[in-house]
Hints:
Elements: H1 2-11, H2 16-33, H3 35-48, H4 54-80, H5 83-89, E1 90-93, H6 98-103, E2 106-109, H7 116-124, E3 129-132, H8 139-149, E4 155-158, H9 165-171, E5 177-179, E6 190-195, E7 198-203, H10 205-213, E8 216-224, E9 231-235, H11 247-264
Parallel strand pairs: 1-9, 2-5, 2-8, 3-4, 3-5
Antiparallel strand pairs: 6-7, 8-9
Amino acid sequence: MRLVLGLMWLLHWLPLPLLGRLGEVTGSVLFILVRSRRRITLINLRLCLPELDEAQRLRIAKKHFQGYARAVLERSLLWWASEARLKRLIVVEPRVPMELIQAGPTILLCPHFVCLDVAGVAVLLESSLCSIYTRQQNRTFNDALLKGRSRFRPIKLFSRGEGIKPIMRAMREPLPFFMLPDMDFGARDAEFVPFFGVSAATLTAPARIAASTGAKVIPVVATFLPNYRGWKVTFYPAWENYPGDDILEATRTMNAFIEARVRETPDEYFWTHKRFKTRPAGEPGLYAKRAANGD
């Protein structure tokens, strides 16, 4: 692992266009070799984008692998490049909403696009934050990850098992809660709501925390800029009257927002995750071998 980290450190000296192309070549190779994740990606695309033909979905899947590998290699810049270089490469639209963050509890809702780490860095260049963290199995990599993410400002990280109380305390400091809302963590603390028309176990925590703390919910999405110029981080307006009186409806609203952003850059969404792994009672699994047509 130390060798891998050493290679990543060397990569951060490369010009971004060269690093980006290297990542895309790596992703193309992984698309061929990592059949299990390719299969999951294609199942997800068939479920979510049935209006496309198989050739179109295959192109999106391949571009996704290229973008994901590119994002991993470009993480070397996020961990080791100078602050000045990152500020040149990260275009923030319209700006980090510091006045709202400083005014009180804030949830920065960041869906799983491949560049999501860039969104975190964009915030950390301006403000500390808190978030949920899964400890990595390899201690060396875990330490490098934590050091890389906290090198500009300290971060308060909590495990999922600690629940929401320590997060709510941190939000009152006020630290914005950088939240990744769209993965399948099982049925606990989740409701089945549509995601691209498919029932998906979706965390209700964003709505519940917002209701308990009076937090503003500000979505943020990070994507690639064209021609290897860097990344764009978009902060959307805070949702009005969210979550309202209906937590389930608020969770549907969140998924609908994420769907709309996915349709804008479909190859950059995190399709390799088993988003529909947890099924409603009585429904068969969607990732069994028989569920995959053509791969």
